[in-house]
Write the structure tokens for this entry.
Amino acid sequence: MKDIDLIKKQAEIIVNLYNANKFAEVINKGKILIKKFPDQVIFYNATSLSLSALGRDDEALLIMRDALNNHPKNIHVLNNLGLISNKLNNNKLSREYFNQALSINDNFVESLINLGNLELSEMNLQECKSLYEKALSLSKDNQTKEIVYMALGYYHQQIGNFDEALNYLYKVNELNPNNTVADKSISLIHKYEDKKDIHLTSMEKKISLKLSEEQNQNLFFALGKAYEDLGLHKESFKFLSRANEIADKRYKYNINKDINLFSQLKSLFQNFKSTLKISSAKKFIFIVGMPRSGTTLIEQIISAHRDVFGAGELKFLSDSIHKNILLDNKFINEKIEEISFEKLKKIQEEYLEGVKFFNYNEKFLIDKAPLNFRWIGFIKILFPESKIIHCKRDPMDICFSNLKNSFAHSSLSFSYNQEKLGNFFNLYKSLMEYWKSKFGNEIFDLVYEDLLNNQKKLTKELLNFCDLSWDENCMKPHENNNKVATASLAQVRAPIYKSSIKKWENYSEELSILKNII
């Protein structure tokens, strides 16, 4: 009886710590409790998910495998193994765990949603929708319905069904007004035309609530967007600043890591010879540049071509490079020719393993992860037949667009502070100049403003560079049904327009720090 009471008390403590995002405390406490109570799944789950939240997914996986040994039929253990495997880019294993959980209980809503998320990431849209709708039909309580409504909102948002997306996101607001993630999602696809806008006034009422930092961050970014729509730039920037302050504090971006990494890359490829290549039959188009430089628009243009499949922003290349040849942010060898063929081949194989889950028959696949600009030297070795398109745009427009958006991945945490963002932009610019000195015309520089001013000419040049014939569909990127999951998801569903040019000038006074740096 004493053990039961103790377990209940410790479980309550660990859940409260987890909900408060005190992940380090959960890990320290959880590891002790696992040893003491190996039959209690909650301690494995909380510890593993906390490790995963801190980016320690390999450790998280080991703990969940121990849990599976003790609880082979526990659907929560299988579900969490699926989540962590997905974070580690092992979609095949992730799918197996979700399906295993569903084979034990085919009405397990969490695994239905997570498998739906996996299907969405792999562009299996009909399968994704069916799983979400089944999950919704099984949802009995408001908390579960909220999760499913969010998933359906994201689904419709990404495929361009904005009315349906808003329908589900407003339902989230009704169930839980404090879900400011929904507010942020609504703001991306809703045009605010009046200060009495119902959604705007509902958000303004939340300002005085006692919300968490994360909730306020989403709320303030959403309010910044709403006031910008209304042309109230001072009010807009006030909320964007508050949102960025919170995000910058949360992510604690350290530019020294990127200074060291970019410097190492230049040294690594100093004596690079073009004969260093690993053959690959697969053909890829890599679209790179600063985030918010037009990469999503370019993907929509090219993937409208009958011979091209747009896969979105893939993390396979970056993750594999970090895993195989970087240790504590330092390359294991100082020169590219010293890195073993086996290591480089492994990176190539892991990338190919990742993309094979996309069901595509087209000649080319697009990977439009902007930060792949860091890895251009590796791309030229691993996929010598690939095409590299570098998106360029007015530096201030790029940086302001970063400042007014929040991002799902911590790799973009440089964007929440004017000084850090400006310094990162300069690092990016210097590295791209280095790659251009190495590879010249093998990298196609596409200037965003030139594309907007002369769409047909630039589109022809793009397709010619990619060895693609003319396709009239490429002139209508807004009609492309390809899934879009970035902050540009609303813009790319409209015909190409020029109103985004020099938008930063409305905030010129407030962006003085950024201007002085770049």
